[in-house]
């Protein structure tokens, strides 16, 4: 097996202490396996993309000593690959157009909730649009036992999600015409030959969907490792949306040592070289080969 890992930031703002943890964990895992590490700019969600943020993220990573082994992949340039995957799914009847507005879905969920049912998309348009115009395109999830997706996470342990009751048929193409993150990430990981996905635990909840979509597309399922998210002092997940402070590009060692401690790794950080060799050795003890 040739290890190929990746770090896939969304360019919605500069890197912060939380995204640095994901970058560092994926980088250390690749180094511990003597594998490749690729950066992918997830700019498929154009309304959330901030001009200049991708270049700033790449420059910060470089200052922190993390260099993509191949030219970064940009999701905004991969529309043809997403379209091809979409057409393959369409040919097998696995996807269908959905005419529900957000409002209609929210209303039906309120009713479902009131009946102690689930918060999954209720499948309103599964058997036709009932005269409504098509908005999004959804992937049918299986029913019964087949809906239970189980995977072993290298940090979090065995995870199971019932796609039918916990998620429902999910969107691959959004009502605004943009490709959904779930489709883009699965097609990108498959095309790049990614063998190991290391990222924040906020994405644990998306993983069963991605595993199922891999199965629908005949793509291999990579190994997964989800690192604990970094919370703000108020206890919220640190994110660009909650105004996390950008990293100081000129003081990489302090930020790296802090990110490593979040991962349970406490090593001297006198220089980037000594930091990365010590941190890689520690990571390898826990998660290597
Ligand atoms: N672009 C996603 C984010 O920044 C990460 C996606 C992934 O690693 O699969 O949260």
UniProtKB/TrEMBL annotation:
<feature type="domain" description="Glutamyl/glutaminyl-tRNA synthetase class Ib catalytic">
    <location>
        <begin position="4"/>
        <end position="244"/>
    </location>
</feature>
<keyword id="KW-0648">Protein biosynthesis</keyword>
<keyword id="KW-0862">Zinc</keyword>
<feature type="binding site">
    <location>
        <begin position="6"/>
        <end position="10"/>
    </location>
    <ligand>
        <name>L-glutamate</name>
    </ligand>
</feature>
<dbReference type="GO" id="GO:0005524">
    <property type="term" value="F:ATP binding"/>
</dbReference>
<dbReference type="GO" id="GO:0006400">
    <property type="term" value="P:tRNA modification"/>
</dbReference>
<feature type="binding site">
    <location>
        <position position="240"/>
    </location>
    <ligand>
        <name>ATP</name>
    </ligand>
</feature>
<comment type="similarity">
    <text>Belongs to the class-I aminoacyl-tRNA synthetase family. GluQ subfamily.</text>
</comment>
<feature type="binding site">
    <location>
        <position position="98"/>
    </location>
    <ligand>
        <name>Zn(2+)</name>
    </ligand>
</feature>
<feature type="binding site">
    <location>
        <position position="100"/>
    </location>
    <ligand>
        <name>Zn(2+)</name>
    </ligand>
</feature>
<feature type="short sequence motif" description="'KMSKS' region">
    <location>
        <begin position="237"/>
        <end position="241"/>
    </location>
</feature>
<feature type="short sequence motif" description="'HIGH' region">
    <location>
        <begin position="9"/>
        <end position="19"/>
    </location>
</feature>
<comment type="function">
    <text>Catalyzes the tRNA-independent activation of glutamate in presence of ATP and the subsequent transfer of glutamate onto a tRNA(Asp). Glutamate is transferred on the 2-amino-5-(4,5-dihydroxy-2-cyclopenten-1-yl) moiety of the queuosine in the wobble position of the QUC anticodon.</text>
</comment>
<protein>
    <recommendedName>
        <fullName>Glutamyl-Q tRNA(Asp) synthetase</fullName>
        <ecNumber>6.1.1.-</ecNumber>
    </recommendedName>
</protein>
<keyword id="KW-0436">Ligase</keyword>
<dbReference type="InterPro" id="IPR020058">
    <property type="entry name" value="Glu/Gln-tRNA-synth_Ib_cat-dom"/>
</dbReference>
<feature type="binding site">
    <location>
        <position position="181"/>
    </location>
    <ligand>
        <name>L-glutamate</name>
    </ligand>
</feature>
<dbReference type="InterPro" id="IPR000924">
    <property type="entry name" value="Glu/Gln-tRNA-synth"/>
</dbReference>
<dbReference type="GO" id="GO:0006424">
    <property type="term" value="P:glutamyl-tRNA aminoacylation"/>
</dbReference>
<keyword id="KW-0547">Nucleotide-binding</keyword>
<feature type="binding site">
    <location>
        <position position="199"/>
    </location>
    <ligand>
        <name>L-glutamate</name>
    </ligand>
</feature>
<feature type="binding site">
    <location>
        <position position="121"/>
    </location>
    <ligand>
        <name>Zn(2+)</name>
    </ligand>
</feature>
<dbReference type="Pfam" id="PF00749">
    <property type="entry name" value="tRNA-synt_1c"/>
</dbReference>
<keyword id="KW-0479">Metal-binding</keyword>
<dbReference type="InterPro" id="IPR014729">
    <property type="entry name" value="Rossmann-like_a/b/a_fold"/>
</dbReference>
<dbReference type="GO" id="GO:0008270">
    <property type="term" value="F:zinc ion binding"/>
</dbReference>
<dbReference type="InterPro" id="IPR022380">
    <property type="entry name" value="Glu-Q_tRNA(Asp)_Synthase"/>
</dbReference>
<dbReference type="GO" id="GO:0004818">
    <property type="term" value="F:glutamate-tRNA ligase activity"/>
</dbReference>
<feature type="binding site">
    <location>
        <position position="125"/>
    </location>
    <ligand>
        <name>Zn(2+)</name>
    </ligand>
</feature>
<keyword id="KW-0067">ATP-binding</keyword>
<keyword id="KW-0030">Aminoacyl-tRNA synthetase</keyword>
<dbReference type="InterPro" id="IPR049940">
    <property type="entry name" value="GluQ/Sye"/>
</dbReference>
<feature type="binding site">
    <location>
        <position position="42"/>
    </location>
    <ligand>
        <name>L-glutamate</name>
    </ligand>
</feature>
<dbReference type="GO" id="GO:0005829">
    <property type="term" value="C:cytosol"/>
</dbReference>
């Amino acid at each position: 097996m040739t290890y190929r890992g990746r770090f896939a930031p969304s360019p919605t703002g500069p890197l912060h202490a939380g995204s640095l943890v994901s970058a560092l964990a994926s980088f250390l895992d690749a180094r511990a396996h003597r594998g490749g590490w690729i950066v992918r700019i997830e700019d498929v969600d154009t309304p959330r993309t901030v001009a200049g943020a991708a270049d700033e993220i790449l420059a910060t990573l470089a200052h922190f000593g993390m260099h993509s082994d191949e030219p970064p992949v940009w999701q905004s340039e991969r529309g043809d690959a997403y379209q091809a995957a979409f057409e393959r799914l369409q040919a097998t009847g696995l996807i269908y157009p959905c005419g529900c507005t957000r409002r209609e879905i929210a209303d039906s969920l309120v009713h479902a909730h009131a009946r102690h049912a689930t918060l999954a998309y209720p499948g309103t348009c599964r058997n036709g649009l009932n005269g409504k115009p098509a908005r999004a395109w959804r992937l049918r999830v299986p029913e019964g036992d087949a809906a239970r997706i189980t995977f072993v996470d290298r940090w979090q342990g065995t995870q199971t999600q019932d796609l039918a009751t916990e998620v429902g048929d999910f969107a691959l193409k959004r009502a605004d015409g943009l490709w959904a993150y779930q489709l883009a990430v699965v097609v990108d990981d498959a095309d790049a030959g990614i063998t190991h996905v290391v990222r924040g635990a906020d994405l644990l909840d998306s993983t069963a969907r991605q595993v199922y979509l891999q199965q629908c597309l005949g793509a291999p399922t990579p190994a997964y490792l989800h690192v604990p998210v970094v919370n703000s002092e108020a206890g919220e997940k640190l994110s660009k949306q909650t105004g996390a402070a950008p990293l100081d590009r000129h003081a990489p060692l302090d930020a790296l040592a802090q990110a490593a401690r979040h991962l349970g790794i406490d090593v001297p950080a006198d220089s980037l070289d000594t930091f990365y060799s010590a941190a890689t050795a520690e990571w390898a003890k826990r998660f290597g080969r």
